[in-house]
Every structure is written in structure tokens, then in C-alpha cells.
Design brief:
mainly alpha; two-stranded antiparallel ribbon; 12 helices; 72% helix
Length: 309
């Protein structure tokens, strides 16, 4: 039982981090109706900015306290992501209003390669580390209930708590604020939203800025765990099954989908892997996503599209 709970806990922690990356996909899709393939590049670019500013700020300002340096690096990286979001809207999206979804999709592919190349040019291509003070040592919980207790990674718990807090804040933002309701209106129908006075360009800037902050938090956490390297952009690929499972238009769906994928990967690898030679964790999420595409393509919480002719 203890081993099962340990595996389950690890899956839940990983699932929250998947949800954080998937949230970026959902935010952009809700506002523009396009699947943003640039989200992985945004996570990488934000992580590179955070890592490099954490190195540069002590040299520029003389501030050597790690907490102060990391706070300033986070603010500076956030400013960079805001600038990137504004430029994307100004130079790309503004000229593609009311275009076909395929056109916007190709635009995000172009943004992906541009951000990867720009990140390498500005910040370098070495492997960097982000040290934000999260403890690396594991702890043993519930020792009174189970012999030896349950092994839990402190870093995973803190990362999951940060991800959960951000997801909760964004859920409230979408449901309770005028800007959040405007975002949902824009996602439903660009032209109708414009006709009632919703400024489409400003809404897109806001949502890309929010997605940039989400990418920064995701890049900071994943960079702390794995190191900042260009393979970090592939983390977004692990989030694709999450948005398919939860639904492209649902913030709660991104959470539930991430938890299901995280737990499913861990449990299937541990309990089914020995029977098939292992490796289930690599493809489990994609097979589950394929099943949903066949039988429930809108996902668990996505809106079902009904076309009347």
C-alpha cells in the first residue's frame, strides 16, 4: 500500500507540472481559437531568460543575496516575456485577424523557430541551471501508518503547489473578471466580439502576456528540475495529450487532464511495465489521447461543436 501511495503521489506531482504547461495552450486557444505550437519555445525562451538574468544581475548590480537576485531575475524575465508577447501581437497576430485557423497555426510554427533561434543568439546554447532555492532532498511521510513511510520529493511538492496556485488564480481570472469574460467572448466569435466593442488586439496582447508568465513559471520549475537546455522545448509535447484529454477550451480540464496523465504514466509503468518490457511511461499518454480523439474528440471538459446545416 505504501508503495502504491508513493507512486500515486509522484504521478500527481508530475501531473500538476504537465497541467502548468498545458495551461499555456488553453489560454491561447481560448483567446484566438488557434493551437499554439510556440508554447514549448516560449517555455524554453523564458527559462533561458530566467537562468541568464540570474547570472547577470549580481554582476550588474552587485546584489549577491540569492533570493533578491532571483526575484530581480524573475521580474526581468517577466518583462522580456511581456515584450515578446506584445511584439507577437503587433507584428504577427494583428495582421491575421479573422483569418483561417490553419493560417494562425502556421504563424505559431514560425514563432516557434524564431524564438528558439533568438534564444540561442541572445542567451547562448549551453546548459544552464536555475537555482531558486527549492529543496532537493526527499522526505518520509506517514511513517506512523506505514513501515518506512512514503518517500516524497520536497521539490515536487513545492513545484506542484506553485502550479496549483497559478492555475487557481487563472481560473478565477477567467470566470470572475470582465477581462476574462471578454477573453471567452473573443474565443467564441472574433467578429461578434469586435461588433460589441471588445478590442480584439488588446485582448490578444493580454492573453499572450498571461501565457508568457505561465511559460516563465513552467520554465523556471522545469529548468530547476532538469536544467535549462534546448530539449526543454520538448516538454510541451508531453502536455499535448493533457489538452486533448481535458479539452482545448477548459482551464479545469487542463488540471484534471494533467493529473490523469501523470498518475496514469506512473502507475502503468510500475504495474504494467514489467509485463511488456517497460517503456509504457513514454507512450501511455499518447495512446490515451488517441482513444479520446476517436471517441470523445472534444475532451472531458471541452465544448461539443454542433454544426447545423
Amino acid at each position: 500500500m505504501a508503495f502504491f501511495l508513493e507512486t500515486l503521489t509522484g504521478g500527481l506531482m508530475a501531473g500538476m507540472l504537465y497541467s502548468l504547461v498545458a495551461l499555456g495552450f488553453v489560454l491561447i486557444y481560448k483567446a484566438s481559437g488557434v493551437f499554439n505550437f510556440a508554447q514549448g519555445a516560449m517555455v524554453l525562451f523564458a527559462a533561458l531568460a530566467m537562468a541568464r538574468f540570474a547570472e547577470w544581475i549580481p554582476a550588474w548590480t552587485g546584489i549577491t543575496h540569492p533570493v533578491a537576485a532571483n526575484v530581480l531575475a524573475f521580474i526581468a524575465a517577466g518583462g522580456v516575456m511581456f515584450a515578446v508577447a506584445w511584439l507577437i501581437e503587433r507584428l504577427v497576430l494583428r495582421h491575421l485577424v479573422n483569418q483561417e485557423g490553419a493560417t494562425l497555426l502556421m504563424a505559431t510554427l514560425g514563432i516557434t523557430y524564431f524564438l528558439e533561434g533568438l534564444g540561442q543568439s541572445i542567451f547562448g546554447s549551453d546548459v544552464y541551471k536555475i537555482d531558486i532555492g527549492m529543496p532537493k532532498d526527499p522526505i518520509f511521510a506517514l511513517e506512523s501508518m506505514f513501515e518506512g513511510g512514503i518517500l516524497i520529493n520536497k521539490e515536487d511538492v513545492i513545484a506542484a503547489a506553485i502550479a496549483a496556485a497559478l492555475v487557481a488564480a487563472l481560473s478565477v481570472f477567467f470566470q470572475k473578471t470582465a477581462t476574462g469574460r471578454a477573453l471567452r467572448a473573443v474565443a467564441d466569435d472574433h467578429q461578434a466580439a469586435q461588433s460589441i466593442g471588445i478590442p480584439l488586439n488588446r485582448i490578444w496582447v493580454i492573453v499572450w502576456c498571461v501565457a508568457g508568465v505561465v511559460a516563465l513559471v513552467a520554465g523556471m520549475i522545469w529548468g530547476s528540475k532538469l536544467g535549462v537546455q534546448f530539449s526543454l522545448a520538448t516538454v510541451a509535447l508531453r502536455a499535448l495529450p493533457v489538452v486533448i484529454l481535458g479539452g482545448l477550451t477548459s482551464v479545469p480540464g487542463a488540471i484534471i487532464g494533467g493529473l490523469i496523465i501523470g498518475v496514469g504514466e506512473k502507475l502503468s509503468e510500475v504495474y504494467l511495465g514489467p509485463f511488456v518490457g517497460g517503456g509504457i511511461e513514454i507512450w501511455f499518454a499518447y495512446v490515451l489521447a488517441l482513444v479520446f480523439l476517436l471517441f470523445r474528440p472534444q475532451g472531458l471538459f471541452g465544448e461539443k461543436i454542433i454544426d447545423r446545416v
